[in-house]
Amino acid sequence: ETQRLLNQMEREMELARQAQKSILPMRSPRRPGYDFGSLIVPARVVGGDFYDFIPVDKQRLCIAIGDISDKGLPAALFMAVTFSLVRAETGRSDNRRQILENVNKFLLRLNAKMFVTLLYCILDFKTGILQYSRAGHLPPIVIDQYAKFVDIPVAEGQPLGVFENLHIDQQQFTIPDGGLMLLFSDGLHEAVDSFGNPFGLDRVRDILSFLSKSFHDLIICCFKMCC
Asked: What is the CATH number of domain 2-34+43-181?
């Protein structure tokens, strides 16, 4: 009986991994003056992390990153629903707050006893301005061409799927020329080293500052941190 349950759990984990893999973008956007990259390292217990790049028009790109509160197949299914909702609402509206409120209303109706943190961004390629709506997710980390951290405005933001009267953190800032921006989920700074110690946000920031001139090395370092 125990072996049967273990086999069933493994099958569910594989389904969850496939669900996560199937919806994520196949490649990163290409745009003169910008260098995009993305990385997700599946854990043994699959969670509900996701990201997406959605073209809004010729000048703007939507960048979304989210994290489901649960793990396993239920989280993967909840992730797939949230992913589809964000895409659908982006196609219907240009209002960031309205988009997140609509997604929140649908998730509340599911009564799934799960929630999702979401960072929903609109990048203007021409001006470098990033407008974002933050629903309980970690804010971006931004550094300039001199590896100095840029102060990002932050206010209260609540996750989706919990509250009817949702508080959304709406901000905007300009990505500096030659700068770098990192969007991430808590799986990055909660990753542990060989001694079992979590990396923490301070170490993430140190690595980002040290490797800011080498985007390729930064991606490799993030991969090693999560493995």
From this structure: 3.60.40.10
